[in-house]
Design brief:
Order of helices and strands of chain A: EHEHEHEHHHEHEHEEEEHEH
Pfam family, one (chain A): THF_DHG_CYH
Radius of gyration of chain B: 20 Å
Low-confidence stretches of chain B: none
CATH superfamily of the largest domain in chain A: NAD(P)-binding Rossmann-like Domain
Order of helices and strands of chain B: EHEHEHEHHHEHEHEEEEHEH
Structural class of chain B: alpha/beta
Helix content of chain B: 40-55%
CATH architecture of the largest domain in chain B: 3-Layer(aba) Sandwich
Number of domains of chain B: 2
Mean pLDDT of chain A: 96
InterPro entries (chain A): Aminoacid_DH-like_N_sf, NAD(P)-bd_dom_sf, THF_DH/CycHdrlase, THF_DH/CycHdrlase_cat_dom, THF_DH/CycHdrlase_CS, THF_DH/CycHdrlase_NAD-bd_dom
Distance between the termini of chain B: 66 Å
Number of strands of chain B: 11
Mean pLDDT of chain B: 95
Radius of gyration of chain A: 20 Å
Structural class of chain A: alpha/beta
Strand content of chain A: 15-25%
Domain Tetrahydrofolate dehydrogenase/cyclohydrolase catalytic (chain A): 6-121
CATH class of the largest domain in chain A: Alpha Beta
Strand content of chain B: 15-25%
Number of helices of chain B: 10
Protein name (chain A): Bifunctional protein FolD
Largest sheet of chain A: 6 strands, parallel
Oligomer: heterodimer
Helix content of chain A: 40-55%
Number of helices of chain A: 10
CATH class of the largest domain in chain B: Alpha Beta
Family (chain A): Belongs to the tetrahydrofolate dehydrogenase/cyclohydrolase family.
């Protein structure tokens, strides 16, 4: 094993510490407390865990957390009315709707209802367009987390060759934009790419975001490259034995085969504990940035882009 | 010389004929497409472009009104003018000619144009739609370059594409349009260590940098398509001349297809503007009909 392990948990804690400092300063100097509203539709257990943990960290950073739980059969009109109310509420600086939502609702349409200035998930089409045209925007949290980890580990990214595997709106495309802004030479590879392994082998920076367990193996990696693994996949782990109900125990893995990649890479993010913890930290950072903009105050430097 | 020269003028003529047909249908429905061009201050700088757009509009059945405003027009006044044009159902597309006076930031004006009238494809919503692979009105030059590539007998899925130049209005939108078509795209720029390494691996190369002679034949894979978006004015012993970013002679020896400058991407860009005018008009018509078809309000 040669690769340095990039500790996303520790770095995320540092970012949350910075967020808390800015929040304290906003309160002291301006009497403003940033507020984040989270909307959860239905009772999906995983979503409940996420929402609870977002709420907890929001409060820990000194911000106000507003949780809105709606029944699984909530009508589109009711949900949109709530979003309109949150858009108009000056105490709310960030709004996010926890996905997935039930099938009778459309995620794209929900995002379109949120004021782009409060869209701390950075998913609104206007925010995607602002990012692509190099203007001030809110950048979606996971891509922002990837960028922060890369900058922290490598310093300047300028001139490095980056390959992003996966072209999703949520991760692949915004990561490409961010790395281009930092003057990387960027290739976006995906399921239609020919000779994927060869393409990845040319990269100083590999960002894997396809959602296929352990797809990228060590022989795809250029020696010394930095590997950012965005994938979170649950696979069977028979070596851990059986659960109480008799089913096989499971474990979380990324899109990279950690053991073989770590043999070759210069640095790699583990799963869990790599990019994952950065996502909530960046959500909190975005909320502070949105709050500063809404109040006409200078944005904290280096906290978001 | 082995490359086939791509005739942008003829592609543009085909597009205009198509646009004229669509414009006729819209006119019959009471929605004759109309563009308004806005120049502020130094109108001479863009005059050639405006006149050319006017001519192309006429031949595509699109009404074209060129407006000139004095250099001292304030941002507030321009805001009012654009709001008026946004609200005017007889106006279907708004073009902001550049350059603008220093006190008028171009991005601020582009954001004020209603996304349904954004025929230049510069509004953040238009760019965002491209990123999300939901193309309605795209930036004309980028769309034109991609349309030209699509006329060639190549399968876009899995195609290796290198884009040289990462400008917000050309390079980046081309990258997203090509990605949407299933290509594997690499974006190079002035910080890229070896552009040749990437361009030589590509089945299609787009170049949009503004540097004459940047791409030479030895940077291309034999048989590749080269789409040259650069427009540079250079002095030669024989006088002034317009050239692209590619060294045409050496590239034409190696490439399979090449766009000339002038006569390549340029004419298709103006034709794309006219196509956008028709698309915008149709979207406005549909929006209007949807709004008035509702009886529950």
């Amino acid at each position: 094993m040669t690769a340095t392990v990039i500790d996303g948990k520790a770095f995320a804690a540092k970012v949350r510490g910075q967020v808390a400092e800015h929040v304290a300063r906003l309160k002291e100097e301006h009497g403003i407390t940033p507020g984040l509203a989270v909307v959860l539709v239905g009772e999906d257990p995983a979503s409940q865990v996420y929402v609870r943990s977002k709420g907890k960290m929001t409060v820990e950073c000194g911000m106000n957390s507003y949780e809105h739980k709606l029944p699984i059969d909530v009508s589109q009109e009711e949900l949109y009315a709530l979003l309109a109310k949150l858009n108009a509420d000056p105490a709310v600086h960030g709004i996010l709707c926890q996905f997935p939502v039930p099938a009778h609702l459309s995620e794209t349409d929900i995002v379109a209802q949120i004021d782009p200035a409060k869209d701390v998930d950075g998913l609104h089409v206007i925010n995607a367009g602002l990012l692509a045209s190099g203007q001030k925007t809110l950048v979606s949290c996971t891509p922002l987390g990837c960028l922060m980890l890369l900058r922290d580990h490598l310093g300047s990214l300028s001139g490095k060759s980056a390959v992003i595997v996966g072209r999703s709106n949520l991760v692949g495309k915004p990561v490409a934009q961010l790395l281009l802004q930092d003057s990387c030479t960027v290739t976006i590879a995906h399921s239609r790419t020919k000779d994927l392994a060869d393409v990845v082998r040319g990269a100083d920076i590999v960002v894997a975001a396809v959602g296929r367990p352990e797809m990228v193996t060590g022989d795809w990696i250029k020696p010394g490259a930095t590997v950012i693994d965005v994938g979170i996949n649950r696979i069977d782990a028979p070596e851990k034995g059986l659960k109480e109900d008799g089913s096989v125990k499971t474990r979380l893995v990324g899109d990279c085969d950690y053991a073989s990649c770590a043999e070759v890479a210069g640095a790699i993010t583990p799963v869990p504990g790599g990019v994952g913890p950065m996502t909530i930290a960046c959500l909190l950072a975005n909320t502070v940035t949105a709050c500063c903009r809404a109040n006409g105050l200078a944005e904290p430097e280096g906290l978001t882009v | 010389m082995r490359a086939a020269i791509i005739d942008g003028k003829s592609i543009a003529a085909d597009m205009r004929a198509e646009v004229a047909k669509d414009a006729g249908v819209l006119a019959d429905a009471g929605w004759a497409p109309k563009l308004v061009s806005i120049s502020i201050g130094d109108t001479a700088a863009a005059e050639l472009y405006v006149r050319n757009q006017q001519k192309q509009a006429n031949s595509a059945g699109v009404e074209f009104e060129a407006r000139n405003y004095p250099a001292e027009t304030s941002l507030e006044q321009m805001t009012g003018i654009l709001q008026g044009l946004n609200a005017d159902p007889r106006v279907n597309g708004i073009i902001i000619q550049r350059p603008l006076p220093d006190h008028i930031p171009v991005k601020a004006l582009q954001k004020m144009v209603h996304p349904l009238k954004d025929v230049e494809g510069m509004h953040p919503a238009s760019i965002g739609n491209i990123v999300y692979n939901d193309l309605a009105l795209g930036p004309c030059t980028a769309v034109a370059a991609v349309e030209i590539l699509k006329t060639l007998p190549m399968d876009m899925e899995g195609l290796n594409v290198t884009v040289i130049g990462h400008s917000e209005i050309v390079g980046k939108p081309i990258a997203f349009l090509m990605m949407g078509l299933g290509a594997t795209v690499t974006v190079c720029h002035h910080m890229t260590r070896s552009v040749a390494m990437h361009s030589r691996a590509a089945d299609a190369v787009f170049v949009a940098v503004g540097k004459p002679g940047l791409v030479t034949g030895d940077m291309l894979k034999p048989g590749a398509a080269l789409i040259d978006i650069g427009i540079n004015r250079i002095e030669t012993p024989e006088g002034g001349k317009t050239v692209g970013d590619a060294d045409f002679d050496s590239c034409a020896e190696v490439a399979g297809w090449i766009t000339p400058v002038p006569g390549g991407v340029g004419p298709v860009t103006v034709a794309t503007l006219m196509k956008n005018a028709v698309l915008a008009t149709r979207m406005q018509m549909e929006q209007y009909r949807d709004a008035y078809a509702r009886t529950d309000i």
